[in-house]
């Protein structure tokens, strides 16, 4: 039974859940997917400050190799203190515990209009459901609150904690992006010039406990449906007690083992296109837990809408596009199909091939 802070998932998804139950009762077989748990590559960023050039270069090579082979990796000694991360989690939990009708107000106690989102209103089948809620906040909102913008609530410590986290994680994202560009031979400042704090954003996520999975067998209800990220890089601070993040590796779903010391970094669609497929933006999802809620904070390293993404090496797998066009195509596909298609929409015809 949900609390007054939970979105009305059961009511919103009633028809889809009933249809699913009907199919199960008609003896349609369910596909049971066995998911292995693994630890992502762990990279110690303190090695970037080593005296020996060989050590620094090996660390950079590890980052590039993980981005090519996994599209995901973990970083430790990343420069964001445990104190900031603990306070962020505490304040985030407090914000989500507000009653649902407070969170959905035009102006809630924390963020400007439109920041709060929940579920997946365009879902047409079970695999498109998202059993989650989120605050989606442009960094301009956080910066504006510290400049006493009268249109944005400022009377909470969540904002100041977020600002401390954002200022550090944005530098971390810049450093990793710079290394990845260098390792693919790009000596330009293209990413640094186009991915500025005012084009990036943060997303606070809560995945409430979902009783459906426990009641209806092995079919998974997603906290966040399978997708790739529409950015250059994502840096994730995830729950260390409750797992749930899974990614595709070698055609199989792999469960990511939580690491309390690490932040998770993953490659987004824009880096895959810019690197001409060298770095991989892989499908990932969050599965629900029948008993425990889960929290995470994601930082999305994005360019301005007018930034043109053109593959660094030739011949290019993808046609040129700007970020605005990419986002519009994603929104159109989600609205009309229920899910994102992403980069396959931008493959040049002679390179068209099946994407997982």
UniProtKB/TrEMBL annotation:
It comes from the Eukaryota. InterPro entries: DIOX_N, IPNS-like_FE2OG_OXY, IPNS-like_sf, Iron_ascorbate_oxido_reductase, Oxoglu/Fe-dep_dioxygenase_dom. Pfam families: 2OG-FeII_Oxy, DIOX_N. Keywords: Iron, Metal-binding, Oxidoreductase. Residues 198-303 form the Fe2OG dioxygenase domain. Belongs to the iron/ascorbate-dependent oxidoreductase family. This is Fe2OG dioxygenase domain-containing protein. It comes from Stylosanthes scabra.
């Amino acid at each position: 039974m949900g609390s007054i802070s939970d979105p009305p998932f059961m009511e919103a998804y009633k028809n889809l859940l009933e249809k699913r139950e009907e199919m199960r009762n008609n003896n349609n077989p369910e596909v049971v997917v066995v998911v292995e748990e693994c630890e992502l590559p762990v990279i110690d960023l303190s090695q970037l400050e080593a005296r020996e050039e060989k050590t620094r270069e090996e660390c950079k090579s590890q980052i590039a190799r993980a981005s090519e082979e996994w599209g995901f990796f973990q970083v430790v000694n990343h420069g964001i203190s445990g104190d900031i991360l603990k306070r962020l989690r505490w304040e985030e939990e407090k914000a989500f515990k507000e009653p649902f009708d407070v969170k959905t107000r035009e102006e809630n106690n924390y963020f400007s209009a439109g920041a709060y989102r929940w579920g997946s209103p365009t879902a047409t089948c079970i695999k498109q459901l998202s059993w989650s809620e989120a605050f989606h906040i442009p960094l301009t909102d956080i910066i504006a609150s510290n400049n006493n913008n009268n249109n944005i609530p400022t009377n909470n410590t969540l904002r100041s904690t977020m600002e401390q986290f954002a200022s550090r994680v944005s530098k971390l994202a810049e450093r990793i992006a710079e290394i990845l560009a260098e390792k693919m031979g790009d000596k330009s400042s293209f990413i640094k010039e186009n991915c500025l704090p005012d084009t990036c954003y943060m997303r606070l996520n809560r995945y409430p406990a979902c009783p459906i999975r426990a009641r209806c067998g092995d079919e998974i209800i997603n906290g966040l449906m399978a997708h790739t990220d529409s950015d250059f890089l994502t840096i994730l601070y995830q729950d260390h007690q409750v797992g749930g993040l899974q990614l595709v590796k070698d055609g199989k779903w792999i469960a990511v083992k939580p690491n309390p010391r690490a932040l998770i970094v993953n490659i987004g669609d824009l880096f895959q296109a810019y690197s001409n497929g060298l770095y991989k933006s892989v499908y990932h999802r969050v599965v629900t837990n029948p008993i425990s809620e889960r929290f995470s904070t994601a930082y999305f390293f994005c360019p301005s809408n007018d930034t043109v993404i053109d593959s660094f090496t030739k011949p290019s797998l993808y046609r040129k596009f700007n970020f605005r066009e990419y986002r519009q195509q994603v929104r159109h596909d989600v609205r009309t199909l229920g899910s994102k298609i992403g980069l396959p929409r931008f493959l040049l015809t002679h390179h068209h091939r099946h994407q997982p």
